[in-house]
Specification:
- The structure is a single chain.
- Helices cover about 80% and strands about 0% of the residues.
- The chain is mainly α.
């Protein structure tokens, strides 16, 4: 309102984008994205006075996409912003870091590493205090590659950051320590701001998996119930797939084979459509475990072969790295 009354378009659009980001984080995704679309379109069209202001607006959009796991939208805006990001080193670093997250999710690990190296150089030049943006994403890449010690070392540089705590929790589950994973996931969730509803989704999914490993079904049910509500609120396919996967694991723990198989298959189908090979492989391993539990060894072998194929295709590197537990 102040920007509008003062006739300052930069201030008005910055405020609009921040309001949109806050609404998305609080769970009002449709309205928040509408405001972010409006502000970002104006920024890309050159209506702001300089690349710094336009870059800030675009960063708010990309942060919002990450909140709801809207990978496609994030990739589109990253490509759009790259046109003027070269003019501002810190903006370039932010954009490359965020784009690396998209590439990691899509299984393009070699490309992601190249983006993170470019981002680190840019941030060191333009915003050295924000180099952690790249470190966080590199830690997750190393974890998925099975380079656990490197991932842990990167996270320990910034243990205060919620994303680092989440990565450490995933590492604990990868290493077969669900108790530590559950504690770290709880710490991560406790540290999020009260209004950060959608930011809870990754932590809830991880907490549910750890709680199921510990056979704490009541706690897992609470985590899955909240995750379900968030996925429904966000309405994005990746979050819905994550919720379906966790519902499948919960149904399996309750001994409901039919429901578990249905939910896991739906998650696998969604991840296949979305081009998320790591998540796809994790879903196939869970389906193979379910088949083995019910004496369907041939089906289990087929699913494990498909999981291997999905991970073998990641950046042409081949071989299963790590899929965590469950």
């Amino acid at each position: 309102m102040i920007g509008r009354r003062a006739g300052n378009l930069d201030l008005e659009l910055l405020a609009l984008s921040l309001t949109g980001l806050a609404k998305v984080a609080a769970g009002d995704v449709a309205e928040g994205m509408r405001e972010l679309d409006q502000a970002t379109a104006a920024a890309v069209a050159g209506e702001l006075s300089g690349p710094h202001f336009a870059g800030a607006v675009c960063c708010h959009m990309i942060y919002a996409c990450e909140r709801v796991l809207d990978v496609e939208r994030a990739a589109q805006w990253c490509d759009t912003v790259s046109g003027f990001a070269d003019e501002v080193p810190q903006l370039f670093g932010f954009c490359r870091s965020h784009y690396a997250s998209v590439l990691i999710w899509r299984g393009r690990w070699q490309d992601a590493e190249a983006e993170l190296e470019a981002a680190a150089r840019a941030l060191e030049l333009g915003a050295p205090a924000l180099v952690f943006e790249g470190l966080l994403r590199l830690a997750e890449l190393r974890r998925r590659q099975g380079r656990f010690d490197e991932a842990a070392e990167l996270c320990e540089r910034i243990p205060w950051h919620p994303a680092a705590q989440l990565c450490l929790a995933e590492l604990a589950l990868d290493r077969g320590d669900p108790e530590a994973a559950a504690e770290l996931a709880d710490r991560h969730l406790r540290g999020l701001p009260d209004g950060e509803r959608l930011g809870r989704a990754p932590g809830l999914a991880l907490a549910a998996r750890a709680q199921l490993e510990l056979r704490d079904l009541p706690a897992a049910e609470r985590s899955v119930e909240e995750l379900d509500a968030l996925a429904e609120s966000a309405g994005t396919a990746p979050l819905r797939a994550s919720a379906r996967f966790c519902r499948g694991l919960l149904a399996r723990a309750h001994g409901d084979q039919a429901a578990a198989r249905r939910e896991l298959q739906d998650a696998i189908d969604a991840w296949s459509r979305l081009g998320a090979p790591y998540e796809l492989a994790r879903g196939r391993v869970a389906l193979a475990e379910l088949a083995l539990e019910h004496g369907r060894s041939e089906e289990a072998a087929r699913e494990l072969e498909r999981a291997q194929a999905a991970l073998a295709a990641i950046s042409g590197e081949g071989g299963i790295r790590t899929l965590g537990r469950g």
